[in-house]
Amino acid sequence: MQKLEGKVAIVTGGSRGIGRAIAHTLARDGARVVLCARGAEDLHSVVNELAALGGVATAISADLRVPDQPARVADFAVKTYGGIDIVVNNAGATKRGDFRQLTDEDWSDGFALKFFGAVRLTRFAWAELKKRRGSLLNISGAGGRTPGAEFTIGGSVNAALLSFTKAMADVGIRDGVQVNAVNPGTIRTGRLQMRLASIMKDFSIDLAAAERRFVEESQITRIGEPEDVANLVGFVVSPEGRFLQGSLIDLDGGSTKTI
Question: What residues contact 1, with CB distance under 8 A and at least 6 apart?
Fold first, then answer.
């Protein structure tokens, strides 16, 4: 028997990168996966990938920045598979840059998806999670604990999401819901490729050299892979990880230096 057999999991931001890898892991472990993102074409591509591997998945295209869309996603999962056991709030990217150049709109957009999208989906899925003694897992980020000058929006959003996780973990003790967060560090995604491209250009070096330079300057062991995050998520939401509650787990190659 697969360890997540019979479970229903929602994965937001599931069309690429970390979310796609998480969807693959949960489906491999037997969960029926509901993927959510804005791009319908990319979502259905992942659904087809999972089906080819024997997984069960479906997708709903939604912009979680819009207040009524998280409820629509939760309702879709219940109508499609009969309930919700796992919610992985993964969606959300924030703009980097000089603080003086970041506008109110940049800040509002950063909070709208990653923070408020997660809060709303949690609210609408909670009754199901409580009924089925399920698991909520927020994908935050290392910047929430180690802010940086170029990451004022992302650090603030991630810190808010970590605080939300801790608060909901107490609610989860009362209601029988597991609540945790994972803080990925630098992961090999499309956004990282843009940062590496900038290093290549600035120092006239190739990609391998740019990666080495990035790792050395960041003082980390290596660049992470989406599968690194997915494997940890698969453990946390499984029966083996059930004792974790209110944990803010750093998965960052050593970038977080604080205690």
Answer: 30
Q: Is 8's pLDDT higher than 90?
A: yes
Cα–Cα nearest to 229, from 23, 59, 56, 51: 23
Instruction: Give CA–CA dist 234/222, Å, rounded.
Output: 21
Q: CB-based contacts of 89: which residues, under 8 Å, 6+ apart?
A: 12, 117, 118, 121, 122, 136, 137, 138, 139, 161
HSE-up (13 A, CA, CB side) for residue 144: 25
Give me the amino acid identity at 193.
Q
State the Cα–Cα distance between residues 222 and 149, nearest whole angstrom. Answer: 22
Architecture of domain 8-187+224-251 in this structure: 3-Layer(aba) Sandwich (3.40)
Identify whether the C-beta of residue 124 lies closer than 8 Å to the C-beta of residue 71.
yes
CB 161 within 8 A of CB 140: yes
The pTM for the full model equals: 0.95
Q: pLDDT tens digit string along 34-50?
A: 999 999 999 999 999 99
DSSP, collapsed to helix, strand or coil, labels residue 56 as strand
Q: Domain locations in the chain? A: 8-187+224-251
